[in-house]
Amino acid sequence: IFYVIYYLVNFFASMSKNDVRIGGWSDNVVKKAVASILKYSNKQVESSEDGHDEIIYLQLSVFSMPTEGPKEAHAKPIRLLHPLYDYKDKDVCLISRDYKDPSQKEMKKKLDEIAKTGNVKKIITLTKLRSNYAAPEAKKKLCKEFEVFFVEEKILPQISKVLNGVLSKVHPIPINLFRQKWTTAVEKACRSTYLQKGVGTSYSIKIGRSSFSNDLLEENLYAAIVKVVSDMPKKWANVRGVYIKTAESVALPVFQRGRKSDR
To answer: Where are the transmembrane segments (predicted)?
Structure first.
């Protein structure tokens, strides 16, 4: 089984590389950028107080943004070759909606079942999060207490407002609890990333962590960019630049193209 998985991972990794259809693209430039950003991010982790991994982003600059269905496009999950998060053997906290209405008995029952699995050490409702963790010190304590945070997809925008960036370094993972089994939902959430609209004509996609090896980050980069570009109008002709960065670093260029006439 191990060799089958190893073969499939390498097969899909090479397939992603071969699917990059853009003149001037260089695998060597990708390797150098990946090595540089990992070296930088690991130094940042070593000097930080909490020691949390840094998230690595792929930044994609395009000539023109899609004009139809932007909300649906940005919310679409992108499956990566290697999971962004490792929740096994970690202290896990789940932040859920409030299920007080009698009609929501099944949802409340599902949460109780999840609590009994032992995978989740604490379940906090949105109401309790607002009331019990309003003080900055309480938020910081919560951040240090758990290594992985899962958040129900529908309340993710509210979580960022409530926590005011305190949990930005642990990056709460959006999860859909009620369409599938808990283990299936977790595996899918950990292996998915999401397309985020950046400033102007750019996208930002989480593709790895500072603890990744060069090969893992490189393979996720290819998997993400091939998927994103395949869903865009004009495909590769619309790509202006590709960069890799952390939340605080400068963007390292992987590929740059000047004008539309260069396409």
So the answer is: none
Please tell me the distance from the alpha carbon of residue 88 to that of residue 68, in angstroms, as a whole number.
39
pLDDT band for position 38 (50/70/90)? very high
What are the two backbone dihedrals, phi and then psi, of residue 56, each rounded to the nearest 5 degrees?
Answer: -105, 130
Can you tell me the distance from the alpha carbon of 253 to that of 222, in angstroms, rounded to the nearest whole number?
15
Q: How far is CA 74 from the centre of its chain?
A: 13
Domain assignment present for 87: no
What is the mean pLDDT of the segment spanning 141-161? 79
Same domain, 227 and 246: yes
Q: Hey, which residues does 209 pair with through a beta bridge?
A: 55
Residue 237: give its domain's CATH number: 3.30.190.20
CA torsion through residues 189, 190, 194, 198, sign: positive
Q: How far apart are CA 214 and CA 201, in angstroms?
A: 28
Distances (CA, A) of 56 to 70, 73, 168, 189, 239: 24, 21, 13, 17, 20
What CA–CA distance (Å, rounded) separates 142 from 140? 5
Q: Which is more confident, 65 or 39?
A: 39
- Chosen domain end from 189, 213, 243: 189
Task: Write down the H helix ranges in 48-135.
Answer: 70-75, 105-116, 126-132
Domain end: 135, 164, 189, which one? 189
**Is 33 domain-assigned?**
yes
State if pTM tops 0.85. no
7: number of CA atoms within 13 Å, CB side? 4
Q: The domain containing residue 175 runs over which residues?
A: 92-189
Contact 249, 37 (CB under 8 A): yes
